[in-house]
Specification:
alpha/beta; 5 helices; 37% helix
């Protein structure tokens, strides 16, 4: 019996350590008059302080949009990071390259908390503890038509995650799903 309890506690501990949990909820407003199927070349610009997170979010979102047949690029790869652009200058640069939609993902708020799970046993088995750092983010999402500068979609995402890679992948997939809905609802 002790052996079974020990194995169960140890497996539970391992699962807590290695299985991150990500929650992404997106909601937004869009212009019903806009033909979203016309947007076939998109650039993703994540405005994150952490460059690693920025690149991951941009790459995963671009990859998810490419699976819908949309030519999508990460701004961290397509735009010179050495020059600072105003929105109007960026719009002109994007038009020159044929990009017809700019998707901006901006961190509106970020909070972090620690959660600890304690597993206990009987006798010599002792106790196990697992602490995880949970990050809560509220993101703003804008889709801007590069021809006229109009915002054609305005939304927000609420994210709770332990794992940046998994969060970036899930966020990219959810943005792609939202974009697919926009293309179908016209």
């Amino acid at each position: 019996m002790k052996n079974f309890v020990f194995k169960f506690a140890f497996l539970s501990f391992l699962l807590m350590c290695f299985c991150g949990c990500v929650s992404v909820n997106i909601s937004g407003f869009y212009d019903r008059k806009v033909d979203y199927k016309a947007y076939n070349k998109v650039i993703i610009d994540a405005k994150f302080d952490n460059i690693g997170e920025k690149k991951k979010v941009e790459m995963h979102t671009a990859r998810a949009l490419k699976q819908l047949g949309i030519e999508a690029f990460a701004s961290s790869q397509a735009i010179s990071q050495l020059k600072t652009f105003t929105r109007e200058e960026l719009q002109k640069e994007l038009l020159k390259s044929g990009v017809n939609l700019l998707v901006e993902i901006d961190v509106k708020s970020s909070k972090e908390r620690s959660d600890t799970a304690v597993y206990g046993g009987v006798g010599l088995m002792g106790f196990f503890a697992s602490t995880s750092r949970i990050k809560n983010l509220t993101l703003g999402i804008l889709a801007i038509d590069t021809k006229n500068g109009n915002v054609v979609y305005k939304g927000s995402a609420v994210v709770e995650t332990e794992d940046t890679d998994e969060f970036a992948e899930n966020l990219g997939e959810e943005i792609a799903k939202e974009f697919e809905k926009l293309r179908e609802n016209r």
